[in-house]
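phosphoenolpyruvate--protein phosphotransferase, Pseudomonas benzopyrenica. Tokens?
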Amino acid sequence: MLAVLRKIVQEVNAAKDLGSALSIIVQRVRAAMQSQVCSVYLLDPDTNRFVLMATEGLNKKSIGRVSMAPNEGLVGLVGTREEPLNLEDAASHPRFRYFAETGEERYASFLGAPIIHHRRVMGVLVVQQKERRQFDEGEEAFLVTMSAQLAGVIAHAEATGTIRGLDRQGRGIQEARFVGIPGSPGVGVGKAVVVLPPADLEVVPDKTVTDIDAELQLFRSALEGVRADMKALSKRLSTQLRKEEQALFDVYLMMLDDAALGNEVTTIIKSGQWAQGALRQVVMEHVQRFELMDDAYLRERAADVRDLGRRLLAYLQQAHQACLIYPENTILVSEELSPAMLGEVPEGRLVGLISVLGSGNSHVAILARAMGVPTVMGAVDLPYSKVDGIDLIVDGYHGEIFTNPSPTLIKQYGDVVEEERQLTQGLDALRSLPCETLDGHRMPLWVNTGLMADVARAQQRGAEGVGLYRTEVPFMVNERFPSEKEQLSIYREQLAAFHPAPVTMRTLDVGGDKALSYFPIKEDNPFLGWRGIRVTLDHPEIFLVQTRAMLKASEGLNNLRIMLPMISGVHEVEESQHLLHRAWCEVRDEGVDIPMPPVGVMVEVPSAVYQARDLARQVDFISVGSNDLTQYLLAVDRNNPRVADLYDYFHPAVLQALQQVVDGAHAEGVPVSICGEMAGDPAAAVLLMGMGFDTLSMNATNLPKVKWLLRQVTLEKARELVQQMRQIDNPQVIHSALHLALRNLGLGRVINPAASVQS
Ligand code: PEP
Ligand code: MG
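Tokens:
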């Protein structure tokens, strides 16, 4: 059963559009279940009716014509009850409704299963048979499993279908809306530039080109490149391989020949297809043909063709990347955005980002917020590879994307962009004013940094210190561990730029979703695995080199603070302090005269919340990492779009934990700050101040908004709001109540400037 299921899902996945996906489903399921009829009814959201979309066994002319309301017929019953229905004699059921045009009177028994995707009923999958007998348990289980597996595929095909009519260039797409997760606030109106994953043939889209000669030339160069690589490889391995094995390389070279693959690709390019699309067509065709062969040896050849295809594609992509022109208003779209991709776009041209994978708390989203680029993450239904070059709107407030927006929508969102520009300009005036509430409470606002560009941005916005310098960022953009000397110079630059303001440097925090290409960590459960301090305590040499570099960099400046990430118990603090002390002694032995800097820990693991007081006794400061703390308290992966709506720092449990940390630290007379993204959310910042946090550290982009808001309230009001929110047990209600309270105070303007477009 599993093998059949898998095969059907695979086939449906490969279908080119919704129509073909549905017809594969009905054909294959009917055959697998040996029933006489299989049909799919999909719920049309506009009319709220289940429409017959595909059938094998009923009259095909009734497709698209027969439909029923949720309170009609057996299909309506399955859809509304969201449960399977298994009937020996359908006609005798009180909800049976007869549709003459389908010819279903011939079939006695009925088995229907709802198709549900993310809690939404999308349709009903039905099998029918002539014989009057109830389907057995195994058959029922098969249909239910089938329909659960197909739900996601159908949802995706449906979403892709909303941009149907797209030609090879993506033109002709009607306006369509795709929902993802808010990644970085703001609105971007621009043109899509798609970055495809390297050497993945399956996602290469079709595209028409006018300069056919240029494409042919690109392809010829790619062929030459791969031929040369093959020859070099064959030579390198010549001493280790037997003659027959060596001959494989000749087969590869033959396949590349003008008379073989090369020729087929060239013919397609000549029809106006770009080289990458032509290559995909030819290679996938051959792969499929080989895979279906009975002979095991020939089946294996599919892997060779695929490998060759990938190699050629890598060359073509390289050439494409080199001549890629980023328009003035680039919206970068990718399956999985990486910091390096953002770096490729020339300064000033990036107005939006879209990532199919990842969530609002993925590190690339944090980076986007620091750069102030509107971003939508987790756009799982967007057929991203097909949108290159088309107009897009990215609404980073609501996590929405519009493809080929109408002039009216462009105008509406254009107004929001302008409004935001004016708001930012207005807030610039706050730069040199203190963050002081109406009743005279001073709330220091610090920034989080990582990129060098953050320094200038932070200074422009009037940051009073650095609450989190993510040292892993310079490690991530390197190809090996930076040496002590290299680190020293990077850290010195940070410390000097902000001097005399304090700079909190976090020791290396890799693992989880932060990978170093040169230090791969492969784990089933990376967020619960070898992360942060766990890695550096296991590798004291990395820790020592890094902290020595930090200490040396602070010579004469003395504005360094050192912070330890992912602390889950006091033993880790003791071990770290032991190493820190050692580094300090070594550095002093080398003649560098520096005092021991303040040392703090991050509270981002639930155990640290309960031990806040114990930890506070051992350190000079505490800083809450609310991004990880939220993920660990709620058991919600911060990167997973599927559970993103469960990730919420307004969850009462998170708010209680934060209060507990503040109280624990203060009971030991230790200052406590927060450096997670929550601190940069203006509404949340009011609550954090009310809870008693001594410092808020956030991305520089949001700092002016937070400052503006805190200057308009009193500490007393903030404390009152904390008390009010503590009475509420539901995160969504806390959101609404808090936003409403701030709006009622006339302070809504920094919360969501795009609200008007949506209403
Ligand atoms: C956090 O977890 O809140 C934090 C600031 O660290 P990072 O986002 O880098 O994991
Ligand atoms: Mg963290």
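Residues 565, 604, 625, 627-628 surround magnesium ion (ligand 2) (CB under 6 Å).
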